[in-house]
Design goal:
The complex is a heterodimer of chains A (about 500) and B (about 120). With about 500 residues, chain A is mainly alpha-helical. Chain A contains 21 helices and 2 strands. The chains are: A mainly alpha (about 500), B mainly alpha (about 120).
Chain lengths: ~500, ~120
């Protein structure tokens, strides 16, 4: 059991090298990628019962050097649930976006695309499991390059622009993260999280080095905020997520931004300690930015005429929910934020995959105004979009409803409740017109043929929808697990 | 003020970091942006190397079988710098490849926005 996280990371690493070598064998590259994704999901799933009955966490030494010197992986219930969710979402997104990959990526480069996806899985797993902030930095950079790469694979002028913007924003953020690590190392002399947190709490008690600590905390918040599209730094997200190929959009929105949020939570709770962060005032700022993101992201989405960019702006709002939940600063609210993260990780890929199908069914136009009747031509995409919409708005028995209920129960104040209600109304205002339009009869009915669906597309949409409803009905099981998980974070 | 002059390595590193950061943020030329990124990373390496140095000690390579740790400087920052250089090289290579593609597409290395403007106004 203790070897599983390391094995999953190693599997992804080997897979990304092997697929890179499979020139002109696209099918084989696809099969290997999916086998590895599935294997990682199954292995991570095996960890969940082990930790939910046994509890506690395990530390895995890399290279046999004990605590303050060596490098470690650390994992418990939280980490294994997240690893399972992330690998499952990657697996299903690739199935759902397969036809998009075939259309958008040159066939001589598809094996490189699969290699990038495995690299992304590897860096996400490492970000979840690592117990060393410098290792986290290295994998943040791998994640950045891989996620810029999966935007760039669809070669066109707009993806090139989006990639360059995304890359520059990410590089600015990486620089800030690196300097904050250097600052922390300079004042504490440690990089491994347990030793680091001991040193930091010693500094807090003695009151020395207040300003460098504050600077390091702020720089980490800003840098991971830029990378995870926290509200004022979200500008790159609609471009990058709105132009990429369907599978890439699903993965970027559903999974990649979450990896950084998990790392930020780890840094708050395990490096600085939440009380220190609260007394520095950072928690309040995160809360306010989260609330602002919830409202403004939804307003921006309402103005959007391009379906994929609209869904991308909705991600900004959903990330606002997560940050507001983190900003409340209680264990239960943190668990609710993580639950929302999981619900969003399953809903946004569903919406992006359905949007991909709808766009195909309306003559490759991304404009909402051209989509009249698209859901009648492509049934699975239409159904998927409806279910995703219900979940995002928060209709009962869908995942989004349960997560919003948990966020509201732990909101600790009036502002969050009002913002939740307002944001949900705004969600309904921009999702419902699209949902109605794709099922209404249009003039273009006779021009465009009904789209035949590949069985793998239906499978992906079906799985995502089923998981959404399952999270809506049985969400309390996951939530209880997360409540147990965050307390030993 | 006195502290600033005793810690002149750190001061220089911070100045270089700000120069690199601003270059990446406000230049329009992609190559200049990439140079700015490299200055930024290198400044952090200078900062780390300065932090690891202890006056009057040897570089951390065991010589003549002497294993007494108090004779050597701290080796960890050197290790971090090496790792950081590898990361910086790979991101630079990736950024340069994108800049090349940009040049092939638009016949220019200038982008029509700066990162600062983009951050403040979004895509308009």
């Amino acid at each position: 059991m203790n070897n599983i996280p390391f094995i999953t990371i190693l599997l992804a690493m080997i897979g990304s090298v092997v697929t890179l070598l499979l020139n002109r064998k696209q099918k084989l590259a696809y099969i290997i990628t999916q086998l590895i994704m599935a294997a990682v999901a199954v292995l991570s799933f095996l960890l969940i019962p082990y930790f939910s009955t046994g509890g506690g966490t395990t530390t895995y030494l890399l290279g046999h050097f004990p605590s303050p010197w060596g490098n470690e992986l650390r994992f418990g219930l939280m980490e294994s649930v997240l690893a399972f969710v992330f690998s499952t979402v990657l697996f299903l997104s690739i199935i759902g976006g397969k036809s998009g990959i075939r259309d958008d990526v040159q066939s001589c480069k598809q094996h490189c695309y699969y290699s990038l996806l495995l690299l992304l899985l590897l860096s996400l797993l490492a970000l979840i499991y690592t117990n060393d902030i410098f290792t986290a930095y290295v994998f943040i950079e791998i994640n950045t390059v891989a996620s810029c790469g999966i935007v760039m694979v669809k070669e066109s002028g707009e993806t090139l622009k989006a990639t360059i913007k995304y890359l520059i924003m990410s590089l600015l953020a990486s620089g800030l993260f690196l300097i904050s690590i250097a600052l922390l190392y300079a004042i504490t002399g440690h990089l491994l999280i347990p030793a680091l947190s001991e040193a930091v709490s010693g500094l807090v008690v003695s009151g020395t080095y207040h300003w460098p600590l504050l600077a390091a905390a702020i720089l980490m918040t800003v840098s991971l905020g830029v990378k995870s599209a926290m509200f004022p730094f979200h500008v790159w997200l609609p471009d990058a997520h709105g132009t990429a190929t369907t599978a890439s959009s699903s993965i970027l929105s559903g999974v990649v931004v979450k990896g950084y949020i998990v790392l930020l939570v780890k840094i708050y709770y395990r490096v600085f300690g939440i009380e220190t962060i609260r007394s520095m005032g950072i928690l309040n700022i995160v809360f306010v930015l989260g609330i602002a993101g919830m409202i403004i992201g939804s307003i921006m989405a309402m103005k959007e005429k391009n379906l994929k960019r609209m869904i991308a702006y909705s991600s900004v709002a959903q990330i606002g929910y997560i940050y507001a939940g983190i900003g409340v600063g209680t264990w239960a609210a943190l668990a609710a934020a993580f639950f929302h993260m999981i619900v969003h990780a399953f809903t946004k890929p569903l919406l992006f995959s359905s949007a991909g199908g709808l766009i195909e069914a309306s003559g490759h136009s991304k404009l909402i105004s051209d989509m009249t009747g698209a859901g009648r031509r492509n049934k699975w995409a239409g159904i998927g979009f409806i279910i995703g919409t219900c979940s995002m708005i928060g209709v009962p028995f869908f995942g989004g409803f349960t997560s919003k209920v948990y966020l509201a129960m732990n909101s600790q104040g009036f502002i969050f409740l009002v913002a939740l209600a307002l944001s949900s109304c705004l969600n309904a205002l921009y999702y419902l017109p699209v949902a109605l339009r794709i099922f209404s009869k249009g003039e273009s009915e006779d021009i465009l043929e009904p789209a035949g669906n590949a069985s793998n597309y239906a499978l992906s949409i079906g799985c995502f929808s089923a998981i959404n409803i399952a999270l809506g009905v049985g969400g309390f099981i996951v939530f209880n697990m997360l409540t147990k998980g965050v307390e030993i974070l | 003020m006195g502290n600033l002059f005793t810690n002149y390595y750190e001061l220089a590193a911070m100045l270089l970091f700000v120069i690199g950061f601003l270059t990446l943020l406000i230049q329009r030329n992609l190559i200049k942006k990439i140079i700015g990124m490299n200055i930024m990373d290198t400044s952090v390496f200078l900062f780390l190397a300065a932090k690891g140095y202890v006056a009057g000690r040897m570089s951390p390579i065991i010589r003549d079988g002497v294993t007494d740790a108090s004779l050597y400087i701290n080796p960890i920052p050197a290790g971090l710098v090496l790792t950081g250089i590898v990361v910086a090289v790979s991101t630079t290579a990736f950024a340069l490849a994108l800049a090349l593609r940009w040049y092939q597409q638009y016949n220019s290395l200038d982008v029509d926005w700066t990162a600062l403007k983009y951050l403040l106004k979004g895509e308009k």
